[in-house]
């Protein structure tokens, strides 16, 4: 069964809070998300995504049987990089390893290349997040290099990897 990628709905807040109220997921994301993650936090995020500039923010719910199992977004860069977007995503832990991440990344990249002027999409997973790196590779992204000592997560200096997909 394939996941469905769709726009957010306010009523997704309960499902989103369940997915994100998980330290294993937060440990693989950038800082800034509260823990515990509440329904109010989820509602605030969904409202922000629904009201964001649709030419710069492309944010979607990843669903299975119309239940949110994750989130994916691409965010247009600016200045000389205005035709480049950074992608981020996560899948609920119960759904890890089932191909939903690859499906979502592939769908969003195809959508962006077909419906916008974006020509390059990149992602910077933590180097230790092998599963995320694999999702990007299976979605056609090229590994461009390791960003050494590029972030501090949970008090540790860590490497990140740079992956990109270029419109052909």
Automatic annotation (TrEMBL):
Residues of the N-acetyltransferase domain: 12-165
SUPFAM superfamilies in the record: Acyl-CoA N-acyltransferases (Nat)
UniProt cross-references to InterPro entries, sorted A to Z: Acyl_CoA_acyltransferase, GNAT_dom
Pfam families: Acetyltransf_3 (PF13302)
PROSITE patterns documented for this protein: GNAT
Protein name, per record: GNAT family N-acetyltransferase
Native source species: Aequitasia blattaphilus
